[in-house]
Amino acid sequence: MYDYDYTALQNETEETAPKNPVKTRWQIIAAIGGVALLLVGLCWFMFAGIKIIFPDYISGVNVIQADGKLIYTDGHSIFYKGKIDGESKLIVKAENNTALLSNGRTLYYISNGDICSVDFDGKNQTTVCHDDHAVSLVHRYHDLLYFMTENTDKEGYALCSFDVKKGETVKIDSVVASWPAPYVCHDMLYYYIDEEMSDVWAFDFKSKETHEIIKNANLYGDARFGEEPLLVTYDASTYSNTAVYEIKNGKAEQLCALPENSVITYLSKSSDELVLYNNDSQKNLLFNLKTGESRELSGMDGALQAVYDHRHPEQVYVLSCKADGTGYSVGDISLLKDGKLQPCTMEPPLADDTVFTVKATVIDGFLLDNDYTAHKITVKADE
Predict the structure, then answer these.
(1) CA separation for the pair 288, 272 (Å, rounded)
(2) Dihedral sign for Cα atoms in the order 366, 371, 372, 373
(3) SS in 3 state form for 140-151?
(4) What is the pTM for the complete model shown?
(5) Which of 141, 179, 194, 305 places its Cα 20 to 30 Å from the Cα of 153?
(6) What is the pLDDT of residues 337-347, one digit of tens each?
């Protein structure tokens, strides 16, 4: 199952700096005072533990988190929550929508072929442009809004840019992806071309150039984005992961090969450990990227799914899962800490008939179900 972990950060157009230098003594004093106030403000934010992501744009499918807000859709309307366990507030009614892009102030979405924007109070609702085959919103880079559209004359998906000031759409013929939701990180887009076996490519939003970074591999639905992004490759013929690559200066360096016939169920956002499920031994493993060593993760049976807390990525929860029709049901849940599993409870408990159709999401210690109801996770007291 693909994990749409859209934590890519994207920058909006910056205001042009004044061209004329400060000339008077009072202007110099005011400028120094402004810098001092800025430094005090930044220190306050850092010591208060508040992460400033505004005005970065976050893209995703069905649910995203931007500027401290949880933004989600039920396919008919788009809502947001200021607190994960708080009340849902309606932003806009929009049919057949799944693609979202927001910085916490402005929301972009696709509805029936229209790419629209709206403020969080529901005002200034605008149809930005129309594309009958648009499937996902990818990025906003300065005045260009990027989206993926389904090709009508060949297989795959094409990248398009729309200039929000000029009102012009340009199809970027050099980018043809096999999957409609490529990864974006540090103004780079990563994608692969063919589902069976292809090469991984990168598109630079600054230079608008493409280049190949990994040969004979496809991207898997999990990645880690930091100063040096990590990309995971997979073999489509065996549905297993093959290797982990680190991206440095636009080039991919293989960190290590993974155990054969294994599937990653978790790629840590803050450490060098992976959670793997080995199809041969039918065991869950903890795998260290630096040492290449693995050991059995005991305490829970069956296939496990590990998810990190989006607000606190150092907190990792492991779910026991069972295939159920078009999705999966969740049984036990544990906190993964220091290589060990600590059993947890959820309040309210998940209903017995709850079936997840996408990878589970945990934010601020709450597990969100398909209806975006928040279930508080608590570590069980030692018996």
Answers:
(1) 6
(2) negative
(3) EEECEEEEEEEC
(4) 0.75
(5) 141
(6) 888 899 999 99
